[in-house]
């Protein structure tokens, strides 16, 4: 595996030897295996995701159980120390300190943390039920102090989860009043909620651009109200994953042990006989494989076919 560098466009090796490449791939498969296991156990109910989406700033977001779970998940899988750098309605920016992927590709000159970006994207899309795209904006292997990732969430999905039935009730009242101005006190009287509760919710609705500072529906708010029945999704209610964090930790540890055992076996076999042709073939197959686990499966399948041929002889 090589990478182009600088103005001279000279290729330099990411791995200095075949042994280093095998060792790195072994660590990668441990990392990918632990991530896969963790994500399977990490589905989050909508009411917990809602708390994070509605948080007004970085500090409020970091205080939510969901964000604290994300930090713990990154730590347990070995990805690094996750921090929140910026929070917007549909965008969140994270940094990762002590990035393990960077260390594995220490000789690379450029962004290398595709595994981390894919993990964040899958977590938001699958476990939070918000289709999202994550891309690495800054990388330690490109000279950055930290690895920085930007998550862009699908706006409709954010509205579907962030706004609850009480918000919708307030939106309905404002929609029916049309151009007539209402105060938080008047809305409280109509809904039966405390005025402070209504005030807080109106601040949330303004943040999400559903209403303006005069408590009138914006164009986005009107469009949301008119199409709400078409886009509403069923509330997903179940215990949050951090209630069972010990099981997730055990499963990650078991998966890592299994992956490490396979990696050791492969390394031992690689030390016995290494043919130059095999190295070239392995490098070509690696380019076509999404992960080390997939590459390993291909190699084992080929070896089994070869053994079957020899047995028939």
What key phrases describe this protein's structure?
alpha+beta; single chain; four-stranded antiparallel β-sheet; 313 residues; disordered N terminus; Muramoyl-pentapeptide Carboxypeptidase, domain 2
Give the helix/strand layout.
Layout: E1 2-5, E2 10-13, H1 18-40, H2 46-54, H3 58-62, H4 65-77, E3 81-87, E4 91-97, H5 100-104, H6 114-127, E5 132-138, E6 147-153, H7 155-162, H8 165-177, H9 184-191, H10 195-207, H11 219-231, H12 245-272, H13 276-288, H14 292-312
Antiparallel strand pairs: 1-2, 3-4, 4-6, 5-6
Describe the structure.
The chain is an alpha+beta fold and 313 residues long. Among the domains are: 118 residues, 2-Layer Sandwich (Muramoyl-pentapeptide Carboxypeptidase, domain 2), CATH 3.30.1380; 69 residues, Winged helix-like DNA-binding domain superfamily/Winged helix DNA-binding domain (Arc Repressor Mutant, subunit A), CATH 1.10.10.10. Helix content is 59%, strand content 12%. The protein has 14 helices and six strands. It has a four-stranded antiparallel sheet with strand order 3-4-6-5. Helix 1 runs parallel beside helix 6, helix 1 packs antiparallel against helix 12 and helix 13 packs across helix 14. The longest helix is centred in the C-terminal third of the chain and has 28 residues. The chain is elongated. The N terminus is likely disordered.
């Amino acid at each position: 595996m090589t990478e182009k560098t600088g103005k001279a466009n000279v290729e330099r090796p990411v791995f200095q030897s075949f042994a280093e490449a095998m060792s790195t791939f072994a660590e990668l498969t441990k990392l990918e295996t632990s991530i896969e296991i963790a994500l399977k156990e990490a589905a989050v109910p909508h009411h917990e995701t809602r708390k994070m989406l509605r948080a007004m700033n970085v500090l409020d977001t970091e205080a939510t159980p969901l964000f604290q779970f994300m930090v713990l998940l990154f730590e347990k899988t070995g990805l690094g120390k996750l921090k929140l750098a910026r929070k917007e309605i549909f965008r969140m920016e994270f940094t990762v300190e002590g990035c393990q992927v960077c260390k594995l590709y220490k000789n690379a000159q450029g962004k290398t943390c595709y595994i981390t970006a894919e993990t964040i994207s899958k977590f938001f899309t699958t476990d939070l039920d918000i289709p999202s795209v994550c891309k690495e904006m800054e990388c330690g292997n490109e000279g950055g102090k930290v690895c920085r990732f930007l998550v862009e969430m699908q706006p409709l999905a954010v509205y579907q989860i962030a706004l609850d039935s009480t918000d919708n009730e307030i939106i309905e009242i404002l929609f029916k009043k049309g151009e007539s101005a209402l105060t938080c006190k008047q809305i409280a009287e109509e809904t039966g909620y405390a005025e402070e509760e209504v005030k807080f919710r109106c601040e949330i609705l303004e943040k999400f651009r559903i209403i303006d500072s005069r408590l009138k529906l914006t164009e986005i708010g009107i469009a949301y109200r008119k199409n709400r029945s078409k886009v509403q999704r069923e509330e997903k209610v179940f215990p949050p994953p951090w209630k069972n964090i010990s099981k997730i930790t055990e499963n990650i540890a078991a998966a890592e042990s299994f992956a490490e055992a396979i990696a050791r076996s492969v390394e031992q076999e690689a030390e016995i006989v290494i043919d130059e042709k095999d190295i070239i073939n392995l490098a070509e197959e690696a380019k076509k494989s999404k992960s080390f686990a997939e590459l390993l499966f291909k190699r084992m399948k080929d070896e089994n076919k070869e053994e079957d041929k020899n047995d028939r002889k």
